[in-house]
Structure formats: C-alpha cells, structure tokens
C-alpha cells in the first residue's frame, strides 16, 4: 500500500515530466534514421492548378536542400487531377526540418 507522501511524490514527478517537454514519448522512438521520404498529396480541378501548388513545395525543398530528389506522379480521378510529390532527403534531419517549415510555404 502506498503512503500519502509516496503518492504525492509520484504525482509531482509525473507533472514535472509533462510540463518539461509536453509529451512522454521519447524522440528516438518517433524518428528513425531511415525515415527520409516525404510524400505530399495534391488535388485540384486542372493539372495546371495542381502543378502550381506542387511547384511551391518543390521549389522550397530545392532551395533548402540541394540534394533532395523529387518524383512527381499525376493521375486523373473522375473530374479531379491528383498528384503525389515524393521528396527523398539525404537524412532524417533534413526531412524533419522541411516538415517543420511546411506551414510557412
């Protein structure tokens, strides 16, 4: 049986962990060294509109990381054009940095 003091100490320790980092997941369990590929889906009414949107992300990736490899695949689904832009980064850190900046594009 736990004493009241032990229970309170446990509660304080748990809160300190949560306040310190906002999460209880270890970063190493989320990021792996071979996680270097990012797939971005786009869709729109015309190929031109989809290309224009995808090009913003392609340009941003090329400007930031010269060695990024880019593959683009288009397909027509009904009256919509869908595209997948695959960005292959050299390392996980590059992918993570790019993902963190996606909201600014």
TrEMBL record:
InterPro entries to which the protein is assigned, alphabetical: DUF406 (IPR005272), UPF0234-like_C (IPR035571)
Source organism, top-level taxon: Bacteria
Recorded family membership: Belongs to the UPF0381 family.
Identification of the protein by name: DUF406 family protein
């Amino acid at each position: 049986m736990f004493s009241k003091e032990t229970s309170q100490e446990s509660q304080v320790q748990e809160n300190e962990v949560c306040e310190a980092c906002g999460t209880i997941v270890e970063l190493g369990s989320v990021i792996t060294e071979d996680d270097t590929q990012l797939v971005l889906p786009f869709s729109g009414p015309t190929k031109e509109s989809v290309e224009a949107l995808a090009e913003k992300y392609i340009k941003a990736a090329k400007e930031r990381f010269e060695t990024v490899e880019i593959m683009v695949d288009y397909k027509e689904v009904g009256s919509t054009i869908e595209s997948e832009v695959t960005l292959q980064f050299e390392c996980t850190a590059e992918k993570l940095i790019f993902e963190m900046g996606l909201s600014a594009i």
